[in-house]
Amino acid sequence: MATTLSAIGLLVASNPVPESQTNQAWDVLLDVQAARGGPLHERLTAALREAIRTRRIAAGDLLPPSRSLAADLGCSRWAVTEAFSQLIAEGYLEARTGSGTRVRWSGDDGPASERAPVPAPHVDPPQFDLAPGLPDLRAFPRRAWANAVQSQVGAVAFTELGHPLPEGHPRLRELLTAYLRRSRQAVTTAQNVTLCSSVTDAVRRLCRALAAEGITAIGCEEPGWTRLRTVIRSAGLETVPIRTDEHGLRVTDLADHPGLRAVLVTPAHQFPRGTVLAPERRAALLRWARETDGVVLEDDYDAEFRYDRRPIGTLQGMDPARVVLLKSLSKTLSPALGIGWIVAPQRWTAHLRAYPGTAPPVLDQLAFAGMLQAGDYDRHLRRLRQRYHRRRDALVAEIHRALPDLRVSGIAAGIHLVLRLPDQVDSADVMTAAVSLRLADLRGYHATDDPAANGLVLGYGNLADPAVGDAVRALRDALRSAGLR
Ligand SMILES: Cc1ncc(COP(=O)(O)O)c(C=O)c1O
Predict the structure, then answer these.
(1) Which of 316, 346, 378 is the last residue of a domain?
(2) Residue whose CA is closest, atom 3 of ligand 1?
(3) Is the beta carbon of 461 within 6 A of some atom in ligand 1?
(4) Are residues 177 and 51 in the same domain?
(5) What is the pLDDT along the chain (485 residues), one digit of tens a residue?
(6) CATH assignment at residue 458
(7) Residue 123 within a domain
(8) Domain range enclosing 415
(9) Atom of ligand 1 nearest to the CA of 340
(10) Within a domain: residue 120?
């Protein structure tokens, strides 16, 4: 019956329509596929409701008599009258003696926020995902996660099923401490680890803690991740752009801002330029923090993925009293999990934990703890590192082949790279032309105007391996339509 229903259009006479014109009535295809399952009258109800809500049938339209609709649809008249009465009861239809059944609901009553949305015109999503930001979502370790959830749910004491502790679950904090010492050369105890939902959340919390200490501005790498600048500003603090070059943050520029006592950096892999903070600058930055009684916020977002050597250890491990380490699972597992952490000196921790209701769900924390304990997280990272390494090599090789005159940089680590553009090609024009690609304009990460910012940021975390060649050819086409010779 579903086939018959989906194949037949519902003939609806528009009102007011003179008798003579009813033959010009229009067809509205009932989307019964979307209402699959369940008895026929329920599917018909759902399909009609959907047609009304999406305004394929408008208020005032006259529906065919139940007998002829049933004949058209090859179903019993009972099914049609059931569907009509249900929709009359819900207020979508109205029946008046002698004038048939009409659509009553216009969607215009009630506050705008409650009205049914007019469907947006269909736009094909970009075919190739080169946006920086996402890890390989296909590689999410479903089995390891499912096993971890299952075993934690089976083992958890009922006493732990209340509200999450503001600092996070003690087992996860212990396991994270061991992981951070081992893998990121962090120097910490579980006492200094606070669970949060993301780096974004971490920065939001830190802004309040800093403001409580009288800090009113944070130095931000220029260029840098726009979202964190927005978070800082919406917390009422000022953002001070500090330029970066091929060795990372220009630490000496901090002296141009007397009174500045906090700076946000991505030392292991500058976002978005992809450079590494040079060793002498790491030392100089920590010196600056000590001399100003300041604090360095270290965003360690994708440091695990380093391809030419072992990942660079954290700054936090070099001065745990002056550096706050921020990290989430967004780049290693999935942003869908909403798990992150902050490693901070004791003086900040009370502030960081003063947010009831914002800790990640207890069972998710325990599942991640289970993965850490079983070695599954380390295994996942090892596999991902190899996978990204191969993909990066393939992408860089394709770019060299298709676009031999363009310069690629920032490839030693992470899951994105920067493609510099020649003067005759404007990155904004490429963005407009690149309809089949999701990518980022380097300029978008700049807080100030910089003519040298003409470039693209290409992420390869979530790019499917077989699509690398086609993605680069699509990029070359976009560059050509933007003026590349
Ligand atoms: C520079 C940078 N830091 C941190 C993150 C992770 O942010 P969150 O944990 O808020 O998802 C990202 C993710 O795209 C990023 O690009």
Answers:
(1) 378
(2) 301
(3) no
(4) no
(5) 332 233 333 433 333 333 333 333 333 345 544 555 667 777 888 788 888 877 778 888 888 888 778 777 778 776 787 788 778 766 788 887 667 888 887 776 544 444 555 556 566 778 999 999 899 999 999 999 999 999 999 999 999 999 999 999 999 999 999 999 999 999 999 999 999 999 999 999 999 999 999 999 999 999 999 999 999 999 999 999 999 999 999 999 999 999 999 999 999 999 999 999 999 999 999 999 999 999 999 999 999 999 988 999 999 999 999 999 999 999 999 999 999 999 999 999 999 999 878 899 999 999 999 999 999 999 999 999 999 999 999 999 999 999 999 999 999 999 999 999 999 999 999 999 999 999 999 999 999 988 889 999 999 999 999 999 999 999 999 999 999 99
(6) 3.90.1150.10
(7) no
(8) 128-135+380-481
(9) 9
(10) no
Q: Quick one: 89 and 226 in the same domain? A: no
Cβ 414 under 6 angstroms from ligand 1: no
Residues 6+ apart with CB under 8 A from 162: none
* C-alpha 85 to ligand 1 mean position (Å): 52
pTM of the model: 0.77
Whether residue 294 is found in the same domain as residue 354: yes
Task: Please indicate whether residue 271, judged by its CB atom, sits closer than 6 Å to ligand 1.
Answer: yes
Index of the ligand 1 atom closest to the CA of residue 201 = 10
Distance CA 147, CA 157 (A): 18
Cα separations in angstroms, 201 against 6, 299, 301, 367: 47, 12, 13, 21
Distance CA 170, CA 161 (A): 14
Q: Where are the alpha helices (DSSP H) in 14-112?
A: 40-53, 66-73, 77-90
- The values of phi and psi at residue 149, to 5°, are -60, -45
**Measured from the CB, is residue 239 less than 6 Å from ligand 1?**
no
372: CATH: 3.40.640.10
Q: Which of 225, 270, 273 to mutate to test the pocket of ligand 1 (most atoms within 8 A of CB)?
A: 225
**Pocket lining: 328 vs ligand 1, CB cutoff 6 Å:** yes
- How far does the centroid of ligand 1 lie from the alpha carbon of residue 363, in Å? 23
Which residue's alpha carbon is nearest to atom 16 within ligand 1? 133
First-to-last alpha carbon distance for the chain, in angstroms, is: 58
Q: Tell me: do 384 and 355 sit in the same domain.
A: no
